[in-house]
Amino acid sequence: MAENKLNRDKTITKWIDEISRGIIEKKDAQLEIEQKTSANDLVTNMDKWVEKELVERIRSSYPEDRILGEEGFGDSVVNMDGTVWFVDPIDGTLNFILQNENYALMLSVFENGEPVQSYIYDVTLNKLYAAIKGEGVSCNGQPIKSPKDVSLSEGMLATNSSIMTEDKYDAIRKIARKSLGLRLVGSAGLETVEVVKGSVAAYIATNLKPWDIAPGVLFMEELGMRATQFDSKPLDLLKNNNIVFATPKAHEEIIRLINL
Amino acid sequence: MAENKLNRDKTITKWIDEISRGIIEKKDAQLEIEQKTSANDLVTNMDKWVEKELVERIRSSYPEDRILGEEGFGDSVVNMDGTVWFVDPIDGTLNFILQNENYALMLSVFENGEPVQSYIYDVTLNKLYAAIKGEGVSCNGQPIKSPKDVSLSEGMLATNSSIMTEDKYDAIRKIARKSLGLRLVGSAGLETVEVVKGSVAAYIATNLKPWDIAPGVLFMEELGMRATQFDSKPLDLLKNNNIVFATPKAHEEIIRLINL
Questions:
Q1: Which of A207, B41, B58, B120 could form a disulfide with B189 if both were Cys (CB 3.0 to 4.6 A apart)?
Q2: A12-70 residue pLDDT tens
Q3: 3-state helix, strand, coil in chain A (%, to 5)
């Protein structure tokens, strides 16, 4: 691994360790909840605290880099020039509030638009999934092999609530019937992990934010899997995306069915 | 706790411990998969081994009792007289095969139609949820308190793939929009646990088998929650059921919406 990636990997791993301890310590005593755009779009003081802690550390160690974070403590990023960090302090905030599990801290680094390092940390299970450009994917340091290239009918499908409930997605919802079954965790990061582990053949979701999907790009790339928009174009990390993360076979089927 | 329930609780806990070790030891070396009614209705040699082991132990320790088990090693049970055991050796067989997690071993005991003891064991997380008539609910021996009586719009909704994908459930699927979000684990036992922990306000599912839902009856009862069919009648453990497990408030709303 190139020296700068290796050092940055050690640094990021240390940050995630420090900050996730803080989440667990502070959470029960101090949780404050605010509504953002709707009743199921919430933010807590912990989301803000985690993002602030991460942004401060990035700015201090890598002052020239730019940061795009969910809670707005980063920069206004309008292009992918240079080194850009994506920060999702708590992915799955509803789960964090209502379940106290099934949420993740996510971070990824892009250099001139190319993903070079991605991290998804399942806080309650203490599992850190990492992808490093050219070095593959690991969980707590143990390498993860590429899942089998299963078709949609040989695997399960992870998705989000909107696809399963909104009228406008009636046609897309039918894709789900081709799979062996649906799974829905409620955290884009942990659904990405399901694809990484081969627990599902694909993850399809609508209207995801850049920080929800940024880590998935490199995870899919390193495992020989696919990450695109519904129209099969590459993800655009400067706007919201409808995404398909999948095995090559399932990806081809889903793209064809979505665009019928 | 009455002496016989206390002894039986110790015995069942020991059995679950012994047999679940066997699952983990034998699984990777020896998994054989057969299709039952469809591509997503599978059985493995491990489902059969677990049920055989449980049925042998029950017959040996409680020779007068009858057993209704998923894989058919028990009895043909046509009424609920006397003591009846429900056995689901591996609930969530698809998860067991494809994910190697998110599956449960389940067991429950009824006396003259009344539930007296129920067990849901999350094998990979090593969490044994138990409900004992009049004694409440516990996880690994630690008592679980009744979740807050939230309405559907204040909580999430667990469901099954059929409701979310089949045309005939279009009307029922709309109920999902009233909740904060959907969750789908793919194991009736572990979805029951989600209701028990208050992680979701309700679990609705169609066409579940007696052994899928038998443990839930006592879990809901002991926590002051509701377990009924879609028409609000009590569960009928001698046939398949469409079920609602929920907080009292969410149950009332769901039954009203289903029967509009």
A1: B120
A2: 999 999 999 999 888 877 788 888 888 888 888 999 999 999 999 999 999 999 999 99
A3: 40, 30, 30
What is the pLDDT at residue A189?
98
- How many Å apart are CA A232 and CA A207, to the nearest integer? 15
B165: its two tokens: 């994908």
Q: How far is CA A252 from the centre of its chain?
A: 21
* Adjacent-strand bridge partners of B139: B129, B142
What pLDDT shows up at residue B56? Answer: 97
Tokens, residue B113: 């139609």
Q: Does A198 touch chain B (CB under 8 A)?
A: yes
pLDDT at B10: 96
Residues of A in contact with B94 (CB under 8 A): 156, 180-181
Q: Domains plus CATH for chain B? A: 3-144 (3.30.540.10), 152-258 (3.40.190.80)
Q: Is B89 on the interface with A (CB under 8 A)?
A: no
Q: What is the nearest CA distance from A96 to chain B, expressed in angstroms?
A: 10
B141 CB-side CA count, 13 A = 2
**Nearest residue in B to A179, CA atom:** B40
Residue A259, classed as helix, strand or coil, is coil
How much is the pLDDT for B171? 82
pLDDT at A37: 86
Facing A180 at nearest CB: one of B39, B174, B176 = B39
- Beta strands B241-246 and B226-229, pairing class: antiparallel
Q: Which residues of A26-56 are buried (b: 16+ CB within 10 A; e: fewer)?
A: ebeeeeeeeeeeeebebbbebbbbbbebbbe
Largest CA distance in chain B: 51
Largest CA distance in chain A: 51
Contact check, Cβ <8 Å, A99/B164: no
d(CA B92, CA B242): 17
Query: Identity (one letter) of the amino acid at B154?
Result: E
Cβ of B174 under 8 Å from any chain A Cβ? yes
User: A1 falls in which pLDDT band (50, 70, 90)?
Assistant: low
Tokens representing residue A142 in the block: 């143990």
Sign of the dihedral through C-alpha A223, A229, A234, A236: negative
Neighboring chain A residues of B199 at a CB cutoff of 8 Å: 95, 98-99, 101
